[in-house]
Design a protein that fits this description.
heterodimer, A: alpha+beta, 9-stranded mixed sheet, about 70% helix, elongated, B: alpha/beta, Rossmann fold, about 40% helix
Chain lengths: ~650, ~260
């Protein structure tokens, strides 16, 4: 009998034990492979204009997934080897050499790993098609998804996981060297020491978390530099969470023991003591999970909010269905007639906006780059336009004063323009005195519109010729204007990159650009979120099952002295519930505060995405809870 | 005398039909209130099976078992457990204390599942701790105290619910002779002063000599029984040794 045949036999006979390990490996391989094959999918690459920009996001996400896979496999590997300590001890007792045992475990691991790799990639192939369909749906494409196999994705997955499997196998190989024979046979160490719990450190934990929240909620007060502030807040939050789990929870549990009339009631005694007994081993994992869950929730909710508000965004930065000035009368006429012919019924309003194109000194306005063209529009034209748009707004400008407009700034609340001066010539300066929170022109065409007084406009018009015209159209079916947009594009395209910088912008194009960008972002966010959620869930699951296995004897005693099954099951449910709820509560608090700040900054509503994402999160989390409780009870019941 | 435990025609068969092993063979046992009964016999005679079946931890294959007149063999598992909790106390060879609980918490554990008010629980713990000399270690954890102390804690836990009968399975098996002696003294004190009914399985003739009656089991059947009556403990001990030497197979246990 050779070693590898023993290894093979071991796997076949103990299939059930190996299944958990195998499954978690397959799980991480499927996830990684699916994602990577999306990254290399040619259909996706060729059909989106935005993917180029989001390439780094994809790259970063796949690295995160790789790290996740490594940690996850490592974790289940140690769960698996721990379960087999006794078996390994027996081999050693029967006189098998350490090297041989090590080799045995090594081969086993390699076999399992390669098996997982094959199964994982096979299932991943199917999944990647499913996810492609989802991705196209979110991005608003209607393309038949073909079944493709990406060699590059397979190669990358195989390379990454062979490496991980190899390292994990070496870890298994080392098992026999890490423990002495008696340690292999000994049950888990008895009487874990309680972590120290002082009311002072507990208060400190709460104070640190509170301080982090205050820092986040009052951005202007304490630190001017926002990145330093964020860094400090994050640090406070991490340390605070750790202390919270370590000290505060221990203190809370110990404190509850003082209320003997409750503490002595049924399962409370069992639940509290069991939790206390295990708390030390759980502190780190609970902290990590609460932080990981916070990040997941924030990422998902933010990307979802963008996607959710895509109509608002588009309307905000693209007020007109079509806006153009091709700097060529013939072409302008042609586009005009195209629109008016096709959309005569859907036309809401249209306007010719006269403006002066200038290149002033904008060094005082940091948000306006040098290559941007400043559009000067007269107050009169502005009033007419506002009337058409149905906006009740007016400006009161003296001669050398101007009004600026929202320019797509992410920071939706602040006013970056008022008070700034724009130099028209050496001795002529206009001061921006008003800022409007809406766009005057469609964004993305490198225009900086300013409304100036009629008097100044007249004067400048004489000096600077010629006056130019911007054509704007608003139609009622702008989202579906694909056909018209394509027709106009045919006209526009040959002129697009001429020196005189023609202008063409359509709502349809901007809207779909946003749909693609945020669609991809929400996909990446959602995918990572799901993976993290499954990972955290599985981590708690494994940890609890390890505890169930080591605590089995304890439940046997309870059974013998006549504690009813019902009570034991209830106690387990509470105990597991506590472990599940703790990180969730902390994560929800963190998420709530950070999203509140973020929503305020971006000036968007996040309630619906918040509730939706949290709902989905809770649902999956709850399932993990049920699964864990069920497996836990099953383990302690089998004798 | 009022009878606490009545067992009639108890059989216990392990295994399937083809490959079966009869552990208990048509046993009749009666234990009256306030008796301290020992069960002895060679290894494999069915001592432990007897205790497990009488205490309903394992179901009997046939026969009837009554405790204080209640028929056990027809009860469902959950009912049985409740009955066990309320009417029986258990002491095991390996103490079976929960190392997550302090000594005091271990003792009160069975009561937390009943509706006993907390001041009464605390009063009982203090009484028992005083009686068994473990007041000083009430707040310690099981892994911090000696085996003898652990077993006395287990005895406290077994009797805190005032059970009708106390089952002890080799309670001195894991103790050194001094601790064993101390424990046996407390058990007989319990029997004398509180009129506790005890059934103790043991292979140790010294332990059995503390009993008021000793049953000898061989191959699953009752071989014989002796009563202490007015004998001294020494005489009882001698008598037990004599029977063990005739019972055969038991000499390994004696020497």
């Amino acid at each position: 009998m050779t070693l590898s045949s023993i290894a093979r036999k071991n796997i076949r006979k103990n299939l059930r034990q190996y299944m958990i390990y195998l499954n978690s490996m397959i799980f991480s391989i499927i996830i990684y492979f699916t994602f990577v094959s999306l990254q290399y999918n040619e259909q996706l690459l060729s059909s989106t204009i935005t993917l180029g920009k989001l390439g780094p996001a994809f790259q970063a996400a796949s690295i995160i997934l790789m790290i996740f896979a490594a940690i996850f496999i490592w974790y289940s590997n140690s769960f698996f080897t721990r379960k087999r300590k006794k078996e390994v001890g027996l081999y050693a007792l029967f006189g098998m050499s350490r090297k041989k045992i090590g080799q045995l475990l090594f081969y086993e691991n390699i076999i399992i790993g390669i098996l997982a790799l094959i199964i994982g990639i096979a299932i991943g192939l199917l999944f990647s098609k499913l996810f492609m369909m989802i991705i196209f749906k979110i991005m608003g494409f209607s393309i038949e998804v073909s079944f493709t196999i990406s060699n590059q994705a397979i190669l990358q997955t195989v390379a990454v996981f062979l490496f991980i499997i190899f390292v994990a196998s070496i870890h298994s190989y080392r098992l026999i060297y890490r423990f002495s024979l008696s340690e292999l046979f000994k049950a888990e160490r008895k009487g874990e020491k309680l972590p120290k719990s002082s009311p002072i450190i507990s208060l400190l934990a709460i104070a640190l978390i509170g301080a982090a929240y205050i820092l986040l909620l009052n951005p202007d007060d304490i630190f001017k530099n926002s990145s330093v502030r964020l860094l400090i807040a994050t640090l406070l939050l991490v340390i605070g969470s750790y202390l919270f789990m370590n000290s505060f929870i221990t203190y809370l549990l110990k404190f509850s023991q003082r209320f003997t009339s409750i503490y002595f009631k049924g399962k409370n005694l069992l639940t509290v003591t069991n939790l206390l007994y295990r708390i030390k081993g759980n502190v780190l994992i609970l902290t990590v999970i609460s932080l990981l869950s916070s990040v997941t929730l924030i990422a998902c909710i933010t990307t979802y909010s963008f996607y959710y508000h895509i109509d608002n965004f588009s309307n905000r930065v693209t007020p007109y269905s079509f806006m153009f000035n091709m700097k060529d009368e013939m072409v302008n006429k042609k586009i005009q007639s195209l629109i008016e012919e096709k959309y005569s019924e859907e036309l809401v309003y249209h306007k010719k906006i006269e403006y002066l194109s200038v290149k002033p000194d904008v060094s005082e306005v940091p948000r306006v780059p040098d290559d941007v063209h400043t559009m000067l529009i007269s107050d009169k034209t502005y009033q007419e336009l506002m009337k058409l748009r149905g906006v009740n707004d007016s400006v009161h400008l003296k001669k050398y004063e101007a009004a600026a407009f929202y320019d797509g700034n992410l920071d939706g609340k602040s006013d970056p323009f008022t008070g700034k001066k724009v130099g028209l010539s050496a001795n002529e300066q206009i001061t921006i005195i008003d800022y409007k929170h809406f766009s005057l022109v469609n964004q993305g065409e490198l225009l900086f519109p300013l409304v100036i007084s009629d008097a100044l406009y007249k004067e400048l018009k004489k000096k600077m010729t010629p006056e130019e015209t911007l054509y704007v159209y608003k139609t009622s079916n702008e989202k579906k204007a694909k056909g018209l947009n394509n027709e106009i594009k045919k006209v526009v395209k040959p002129l697009r990159y001429q020196m005189n910088l023609p202008i063409y912008s359509s709502f349809y194009e901007n809207y779909h650009y946003g749909l693609e960008t945020y669609g991809l972002l929400i996909f990446i966010g959602g995918f990572l979120g799901l993976v993290f959620l499954l990972a955290t869930g599985s981590m708690i699951y494994f940890k609890q099952l390890i505890e169930a296995t080591t605590d089995k004897d304890r439940y046997k005693i309870l059974k013998k002295i006549g504690i009813p099954d019902k009570e034991i099951t209830k106690s387990v449910a509470r105990q597991v519930g506590f472990v599940f709820i703790l990180p969730l509560v902390l994560a929800t608090c963190n998420t709530g505060v950070i999203l509140y700040v973020l929503a305020d900054f971006l000036n968007i509503q996040m309630q619906v995405p918040f509730v939706t994402c949290l709902g989905i999160y809770l649902l999956i989390y709850l399932n993990y809870y049920w699964l864990t409780t069920a497996s836990y009870t099953k383990i302690i019941k089998e004798t | 005398m009022e009878s606490i435990l009545e067992a009639k025609g108890v059989n216990k068969v392990f295994g399937s039909k083809r490959n079966s092993f009869t552990a208990l063979n048509d046993l009749d046992i009666n234990i009256a209130k306030g008796e301290f009964v020992g069960v002895m016999g060679p290894s494999g005679a069915g001592k432990s099976s007897l205790l497990n079946v009488l205490s309903s931890i394992e179901p009997a294959t046939s026969g009837t078992i009554r405790i204080e007149g209640t028929e056990l063999t027809r009860m469902k598992e959950d009912q049985l457990r409740e009955f066990r909790r309320d009417k029986m106390g258990f002491i095991f060879q390996d103490y079976n204390l929960l190392d997550t609980l302090t000594v005091a918490e271990n003792i009160i554990l069975p009561l937390t599942f009943t509706k006993t008010p907390k001041h009464e629980i605390q009063k009982k713990v203090n009484e028992l701790a005083e009686m068994f000399g473990i007041q000083a270690i009430l707040e310690k954890y099981p892994y911090e105290i000696s085996g003898g102390q652990q077993q006395r804690t287990a005895v406290c836990r077994a009797i805190i619910g005032k059970p009708s009968i106390l089952f002890a399975d080799e309670p001195t098996g894991a103790l050194d002779s001094k601790s064993a002696h101390y424990l046996l003294q407390t058990l007989s004190k319990l029997n004398d002063e509180m009129k506790a009914t005890i059934l103790m399985v043991t292979h140790d003739p010294y332990a059995a000599s503390f009993c008021s009656r000793v049953l000898f089991i061989k191959d699953g059947s009752l071989y014989t029984e002796i009563h202490k009556g007015d004998q001294s403990r020494k005489q009882m001990f001698q008598q037990i040794l004599n029977i063990l030497s005739t019972i055969g197979g038991g000499q390994y246990d004696v020497i």
